[in-house]
Design goal:
Helix content is 26%, strand content 26%. The protein is of the alpha/beta class and 348 residues long.
Amino acid sequence: MQRLIRISEVFAPFHEEILARCGIHAAKRLGREYWLFPCDEGWNASTYPESLWLRWNMTVDHAWPCVPEKTENFLEKSALALIRKFATKPLQQIMVSPLLSGSPHPLYKKMSSQLQQRLRTELPLSCHGQEPEQQDPQGMSMFALLGKEGLFASASAPRDCGGFFAGGSKHISHRAAHSISRAGAKVAEALHFLQLYRQPLPESCHWLELGASPGGMTAELLERGYQVTAVDRAPMDTRVASHPRLQCYAQDARNFQPPRGDVYDALLCDMNGSAEESLDVVLAQVPFLRSGAVVVFTMKTHRAATMQDIVSLHQRVIEQAKKGGLSFLAQTHLTYNRNEFTLFWEVP
């Protein structure tokens, strides 16, 4: 069998080492971030610490290695082949994306859209909603990736692969009207990813945000209707500072004590500095989080010089959170993460 995985281009210097450490051999590179490789059915990415770097991971049930733009009637032939292959599968949705991430070639972006539309017309689907998040994270969807290297498709669960879109990425602009910085797009993508593991947080949710200044993530949370308590020594941007659903505390997050009686439904931490020190600040607030509260944490890696340094840091952070009373939920590398990772925990 074959698998298709994605490792963000920002980690290009580590790509070969990640593959080797995950027991992956004879891998063929597709585009800038994808790798196709043969493997045994028993291969399980989660058994390798280096799976932290895998943004997308799917079995390949159908492959057509070719150059689509030079292949006569490529879309028609592809559609017919996929219809024959997946007609008996209980599919809930069909998602087709270009293999080239970021700014895909216009031709393959158009071809992906056309193939997706054709397949949705021809194949019976149980999920007729237009929003990708309406898929059951554990149900079966068809994911297909298309590029100058050919077409690669799978019938898999979104959670198993790592996203609701083929390839895992949802394009989220950091230039929305309410945006203050690119950090807003980062938390928006994190909340999108979180739906693979739990229902969206209701508007009544009260967030505690540590290291909030200047308010890029705060603005995104407020835009979604949440109440936010923001803590940071630095001032908040004037565009959010006086928002009626925002309470600001101009102090070091390490010394923050919630007002008497306050409890929170979610905690967000994107603080700079040591990941372990930041997590200590988070764990100090666990007594003020409700049971079932979610913790969204950015694990900074700027002090880790090698891949092994990052692996070791990640293992220490996971153990530290466990000892601090948090239950591990998920982890990923987001489009806006750069050299860092986003980890999710729940309060039991």
